From TrEMBL:
Protein name: Unnamed protein product
InterPro entries: MitoProcess-Associated (IPR053245), RCC1/BLIP-II (IPR009091), Reg_chr_condens (IPR000408)
Taxonomic source organism: Candida boidinii
Any GO BP: mitochondrial respiratory chain complex III assembly
Lineage, uppermost ranks: Eukaryota, Fungi, Dikarya, Ascomycota, Saccharomycotina
Domain of life: Eukaryota
């Protein structure tokens, strides 16, 4: 899709919040716009989710469907010169926005009532209408390590945020090479040492257990390690060693979350009032847990007995991943679905 008024700009990716849309273009720039609400079609108030200081909580909100460039994010000043910042991923929560740049820094703006921006909660930081870098993550690593984010996740209607980090020793040399080469790092391109350093964090709203930290909390402004996800291991037949199992994909609903591991195991946690975790219960979970295997239709009593025996031995959900297609799990507002996706 072309962007009106900007020649040669195309939409590469997008993410939607409750009342705003975030676009990532092919030149790694970010644009935002208001989408209105379901009842009136207009915005009654801005929560800073557009990344524009002139659309703060004290100003008239933008009109729906009008695009604005997030100039304070796309460009930065250094030594009295203006440089382009390359954004590689965007993620929109309910009333906040996360952006990941090619150096591994996470930028956030919008509503911070429960700490979704990774900043301390007080009157002055409840709403931040301009991009700010999340710095509270740094003390989780050693001084000689350069922490670099490689993935950010949130969901439409969600007040929680999630991020995957790697760390590298040789801080200064590594950061210098990143600035010179400007290469985007992807999960399937990580070195063995980088894979070993994978660390998963969460912050923001956690009253329904959606942060996966093992407890329930209204607001968590400081990114915390999701210990359960960082401790999942499996035996590697090729290396003959027990190794960490990285996350392949995330899906974040309003108050519940699913992750799919590299071995296609599924873990879920958070709100379960409507049975959206698919575990046969309605109690919420504050820590990631495996999900029971799917109950598929059967035709004969022999098939029922055979599937029951198989289920007893391996009663956990593993998504199908074949050459032609794969299964994908998606968390909605209060529901969950699994669909088939062609390769």
């Amino acid at each position: 899709m072309m962007i009106n008024g900007f020649k040669n700009l195309r939409v590469k990716d997008f993410s939607t919040g409750d009342e705003h849309l975030v676009l990532l273009t092919n030149d790694k720039s970010v644009f935002t716009c208001a989408t209105g609400n379901d009842s009136t079609g207009e915005l009654s108030k801005s929560n800073g989710q557009f990344g524009l200081p002139n659309f703060s909580q004290f100003d008239t909100p933008p009109k729906p469907n009008e695009l604005y460039e997030v100039g304070l994010l796309n460009k930065f000043r250094e030594n009295n010169e203006i440089f382009k910042r390359d954004i590689v991923k965007v993620a929109a929560g309910d009333f906040f926005t996360l952006c990941l740049d090619n150096l591994g820094y996470v930028w956030a703006f919008g509503k911070n009532t429960y700490g979704a921006l990774g900043r301390d909660i007080n009157y002055n930081t409840e709403i931040i209408p301009y991009p700010m870098k999340i710095d509270l993550i740094n003390h989780r690593f050693n001084k000689n390590e350069f922490p670099q984010c490689i993935d950010i996740v949130t969901g439409n209607g969600s007040g929680s945020a999630y991020a995957t980090y790697i760390s590298n020793n040789i801080y200064q040399l590594f950061e210098k090479s990143l600035k010179e080469n400007k290469k985007d790092i992807k999960l399937d391109q990580l070195s063995k040492s980088q894979q070993d350093s994978l660390t998963y964090f969460s912050w923001g709203h956690g009253l329904k257990g959606e942060l996966g930290l093992g407890h329930y909390i209204h607001g968590q402004p400081e990114p915390k390690i999701i210990k359960t996800l960082n401790n999942i291991t499996e035996y590697n037949d090729e290396t003959k060693k027990i190794e960490a199992t990285p996350i392949k994909s995330w899906s974040v609903g309003r108050n519940h979350v699913f992750v799919t591991l590299r071995n296609n195991d599924v873990y879920g946690w958070g709100d379960n009032e409507f049975g959206q975790l698919g575990n046969g219960k309605k109690a919420k979970l504050s820590s990631p847990s495996t999900i029971p295997a799917l109950l598929e239709p059967t035709t004969t009593s022999e098939e029922i007995d055979r599937k029951k025996k198989t289920t007893d031995l391996n009663d956990r959900l593993q998504l199908t991943n074949k050459n032609e297609y794969e299964q994908v799990i998606v968390a909605g507002s209060d529901t969950t679905a699994i669909y088939y996706k062609k390769h």
